[in-house]
Amino acid sequence: MDCNQFLEEQTRELRRTVGDHIAINALSGGVDSSVVTALGHRALGNQLKTVFVDNALMRDGEPEYVVQTFAALGIPVDLIDAREEFLSALEGLTDPEAKRRAITDTFYQTVFGRIVRESGAKFLLHGTILTDIEETVAGIKRQHNILSQLGIDPEQAYGYQVLEPLKTLRKDGVRELAAYLDLPADLAQRIPFPGPALATRIVGEVTADRLATVRAATMIVEEELAATGAFQYLAVLLNDCATGIRNGKREFGQIIVVRCIESTDARKATVTELGWDKLHTLSQRITSLPGVNRCLYDLTPKPPATVEYI
Ligand code: XMP
Prior knowledge:
Structural class: alpha/beta
Helix content: 40-55%
Shape: globular
Distance between the termini: 33 Å
Strand content: 15-25%
Bound molecules: xanthosine-5'-monophosphate
Strand order of the largest sheet: 3-2-1-4-5
Radius of gyration: 20 Å
């Protein structure tokens, strides 16, 4: 890809579309939204307001990491605490698509609606990529970030127009652009992380307690598997429990699945052949988390499985 030409075209297009208005974007810390943020600030300067919404579904330390990383690049990011709103929207929901819908609506309607009204922004920049569009159109999954492809008019529904400058690129193209834009290597090379965050890794109800469990397991998996160079690795909390023994007593405990995959663009994936020692360490560390007494390794490629569990 010719990054320079791509940036020139997108810059021209953004300036032409946004004109004298204010645009806004939500940074999640993933490579897609990070590239949109850097590209948007390059094109629009302080006409672009960037926010980071803490939806309670993030990895440990994520909001602070993202805000500090962009501050170091000279890009100010407002941290919005919306944890309570997301948790109450998710309360009692167990159906995967209902959970995704609740997150989408809380994000765009409740939280973003408010931020946009306060900011006066007419445009929302979003890091949608081609794979998101294809999978949503194919009906595989309702992606968090697709609206118009689903026949939802964001201007009518939420009061603003969505701009998607990366919608012709796949993940590898976005990574190329990240390097070209001088984003820090650890940010540009981060493994993919979905918009609905840890909610895609909790089967069943998303509660603060269950989030704490999957968040702690995520930290262990990310620490243990970073050196594998795999495309993506994650921890999932199942809805079932299983009998086990802790301190000589019967315990009906929680089950964590570890998933680690090889892929180039997440459309297809194979399972990483982890060594036994690594699997053993993962199992030991994960089952030392309170209430977790089983750790499983997922052997399923995509297809037939998807990467995430909801
Ligand atoms: P699936 O689970 O569909 O995931 O096989 C394919 C890739 O997309 C990520 N993913 C998402 N990313 N919003 C995103 O921004 C989403 O709603 C979403 N769902 C899945 C997933 O982590 C994998 O890399």
